[in-house]
Amino acid sequence: LQGYASEMDNPNLVHLIPSALQNKKEILFGNLPEIYEFHNRHVGTGGCPAIFLKEIENCIENPELLARCFLKRKEDLQIYEKYCQNKPRSEALWRQCGDSIFFQECQRKLDHKLSLDAYLLKPVQRITKYQLLLKEMLKCSKNSEGTAELEEALATMLDIIKSVNDSMHQIAITGYE
């Protein structure tokens, strides 16, 4: 977001932006700002910071609490569905403009080995990694405290992934209202 999306508003680089990309930042990046905001939001009670990652890290000592982190954010995690639905449009735009001088310059300034499209894939990969984490936790915690919550959290993540897949298939259907 900082090294590419914000650079699209940089007056010194605007002349390097391909015409096909003009006014299409929201197509390329989808709701990535919303996902970023979710992962940086403080929603703790009593003024305690409760960023999602910090809550997960706090479960190292109490792994039985991990499921609650996911269950508490069941609705929030659905923002990934919107991101995935936009992904085909984003990829089409990237195929059209990805080799432009603008993106090469941004990548050079950031000293990134990978191009932007690799980073735009990360949210899609993350949503599947969550369910793998929960599956692994479940394997290690059979019949212990928190197992039922882990099963519920895993079911929640699998529902979100199924919803993403279903909506992706619906988007792929063309020629019908």
From TrEMBL:
Annotated DH domain ranges read 1-167
GO CC entries? cytoplasm
**Which CDD domains does this one have?**
RhoGEF
Bilayer-crossing residues are none
| GO terms for biological process, alphabetical | intracellular signal transduction
Signal peptide (from-to): none
Q: Which Gene3D superfamilies match?
A: Dbl homology (DH) domain (1.20.900.10)
Alphabetical UniProt keywords: Guanine-nucleotide releasing factor
Which InterPro entries does the record cross-reference, listed alphabetically? DBL_dom_sf (IPR035899), DH_dom (IPR000219), GDS_CDC24_CS (IPR001331), RhoGEF_Guanine_NuclExch_SF (IPR051336)
Show the SUPFAM superfamilies listed in the entry. Answer: DBL homology domain (DH-domain)
- Give the molecular function GO annotations: guanyl-nucleotide exchange factor activity
Its protein name is MCF2L factor
Annotated gene: Mcf2l_2
